[in-house]
UniProtKB/TrEMBL annotation:
It is found in: Secreted, Extracellular space, Apoplast. Its main location: secreted. Residues 1-20 form the signal peptide. The keyword Chaperone does not apply. The lineage of its organism: Eukaryota, Viridiplantae, Streptophyta, Embryophyta, Tracheophyta. This is Germin-like protein. Gene3D superfamilies: Jelly Rolls.
Length: 223
């Protein structure tokens, strides 16, 4: 038996390394995102900045010391450090977001299509949670204080808001996606063109006038 194991072990090892037991990203080279084709090269088949032209600023972003603008109907503001701000994130599958909350401010109901989040409360008191899929629709949540960390697994609707009446709150969220694609309540009430009212009315079991009022508010926010 042990000879058999000795014989098969290298084979099993080889198979597991080929078929993805290794969870590190496959990306092994620098691929700083670039818009100007003139200085671009292909790395792993992707268009990247010529590595000889890469500079320190391709990996740098400043501004997380500044609060985001919470003067909106939600009372929250996000500061992004994704591939749009840091081209060096290309191919790395990570990004960072700062979220500021006014008293009772909410992050509109949203979920990331791809990317789990790990949230750190820098200041204030936040209610943080997510809802699992049908049919259980289990709400998994917690009230967090300064220094608390919470994980939001990818693909579930997030519920994040400041429960305090008087104090602001700040959170830093790390995401395993370099350009997280967000779907929020705007996708429902602020779509372009609008989703038919009769569909929304039945889907949400609301009176038509309630849906109409909501749609009007979303339109006003945009103008
Ligand atoms: C914050 O956003 C509001 C609404 O868009 C705007 O009127 C205001 O000038 C912004 N404040 C700052 C400091 O950027």
């Amino acid at each position: 038996m042990s000879t058999l194991i000795n014989f098969f072990f290298p084979l099993v090892f080889l198979i597991s390394s080929v078929f993805g037991v290794d969870q590190r990203p496959l990306f092994r080279d620098l691929c700083v995102a670039i818009n100007d084709l003139k200085d671009a090269v292909l790395v792993n088949g992707k268009l990247c900045k010529d590595p000889r032209l890469v500079t320190t600023n391709d990996f740098f972003f400043s501004g997380f010391d500044e609060p985001g603008n919470t003067s909106n109907t939600f009372g929250s503001g996000r500061t992004l450090a994704t591939i749009d701000q840091i081209p060096g994130l290309n191919g790395l599958g990570i990004s960072l977001v700062r979220i500021d909350f006014a008293p009772k401010g909410v992050l509109p109901m949203s979920y990331l299509r791809e990317g789990s989040q790990i949230l750190l409360v820098l200041d204030g008191t936040l209610y943080v949670g997510f809802v699992t899929s049908d049919p259980a629709n289990h709400l998994i949540s917690k009230v967090l204080h300064k220094g608390d960390v919470y994980v939001l697994p990818q693909g579930f609707p997030n519920i994040i808001y400041n429960v305090d009446h008087t104090c602001n709150a700040v959170a830093i969220v790390a995401i395993n996606n370099q350009s997280p694609d967000v779907l929020s309540s705007k996708a429902i009430f602020g779509s372009d063109p609008m989703i038919p009212i009769e569909f929304l009315t039945k889907s949400y079991k609301f009176e038509e006038k309630v849906i109409e009022a909501a749609l009007k508010k979303w339109k006003m926010d945009e103008s």
